[in-house]
Amino acid sequence: MGVEVRVEGLTKSFGSQNIWSDVTLTLPPGEISVLLGPSGTGKSVFLKSLVGLLKPERGSIVIKDTDIVRTSEHRLYEVRKLFGVLFQDGALFGSMNLFDNIAFPLREHTRKSESDIRWIVLEKMDMVGLQGAEGKLPGEISGGMRKRAGLARALVLDPEIILFDEPDSGLDPVRVAYLNQLIVDLNAQIDATFLIVTHDIGTARTVPDNLGLLFRRHLAMFGPREQLLTSQEPVVRQFLNGRREGPIGMSEEKDVAQVEAEMAALEARGGDQHNGVGPKGASGGDAVPPQLEPSPGLPERQAQRRRQERVARMLHEFDPATAQAIRASLPEDLLAQADAGVFAPTPLAGGRHWAAESAPAGGAAVLPGPRGRS
């Protein structure tokens, strides 16, 4: 199973330019999380901070009881072994064929024999659908194949956390759909913790267990996907509906008076209906689209049940629209337990932190609950 990543009060600047401040969230182990945000909000900077390539000025990033912001270089090197990273362009070596590109981390960081390396590389290539392409150079294949090769390379050291930096960048909608299914399939097979940075709204609506949005140098929201997809926050509605009206401007943020005038005019026209989605929520009214399931023949995602147990505990903490959408995703046994009051209320409302808690009296399942701010 993947590991939990706990981020608390993270602040990063370059000189006098603040990128983001006081970012607090927890990536639940084994689940798929997506981080959205307008261009220039520091999403890629956040990924680089998680893996220790950039050092924030304040805050903590705790992985397996190690705060990588303050740890030694030796310990940071060990923690980095938990990560696999898919970069925007795949970051392949142009002079190496796909086999050697994917084998590179194994040859650099392990003492495995070439026969073992060959077995691992071919296994990972098979997982991402690149059977028979090991002799091809990056320049001889499509952008989608390069992404998959980069993903295979990210998998060869069996990481417990995988970071995806705009994996859909440069791909047409059909290839994005195939890539999204591949991400879900991989999560079902390896049960690692995934964090995806993307601008693709289709990905955000159908792939993750959890959704977050960076805006105005802060984390505007992070929690179960239903929380953002039913949100009434103007910036969330604007971003997920892809329209001009809202706080996000062409090159800068709009002032409050302009946003209020635009939102009033939008509501007068019937909300977001002109964009083909409903006015009540960012995803189109009460309808939260189904989450992608693993392909036939693959195991069920282990994280799905853990996630269902976690959000069942959180039901009382959300507004009615979010709670209704979450209820629609829960199996009957968890709904019955939630309605019967089996789950003890969590000490604080919110979706940014989740921590394992003791089972309530009576032998109920051990369920993780939220802790932190909404």
Automatic annotation (TrEMBL):
<dbReference type="GO" id="GO:0005524">
    <property type="term" value="F:ATP binding"/>
</dbReference>
<feature type="region of interest" description="Disordered">
    <location>
        <begin position="270"/>
        <end position="309"/>
    </location>
</feature>
<dbReference type="Pfam" id="PF00005">
    <property type="entry name" value="ABC_tran"/>
</dbReference>
<feature type="domain" description="ABC transporter">
    <location>
        <begin position="5"/>
        <end position="241"/>
    </location>
</feature>
<keyword id="KW-0547">Nucleotide-binding</keyword>
<dbReference type="GO" id="GO:0016887">
    <property type="term" value="F:ATP hydrolysis activity"/>
</dbReference>
<protein>
    <submittedName>
        <fullName>Phospholipid/cholesterol/gamma-HCH transport system ATP-binding protein</fullName>
    </submittedName>
</protein>
<dbReference type="InterPro" id="IPR003439">
    <property type="entry name" value="ABC_transporter-like_ATP-bd"/>
</dbReference>
<dbReference type="InterPro" id="IPR003593">
    <property type="entry name" value="AAA+_ATPase"/>
</dbReference>
<keyword id="KW-0813">Transport</keyword>
<dbReference type="InterPro" id="IPR027417">
    <property type="entry name" value="P-loop_NTPase"/>
</dbReference>
<keyword id="KW-0067">ATP-binding</keyword>
<dbReference type="InterPro" id="IPR017871">
    <property type="entry name" value="ABC_transporter-like_CS"/>
</dbReference>
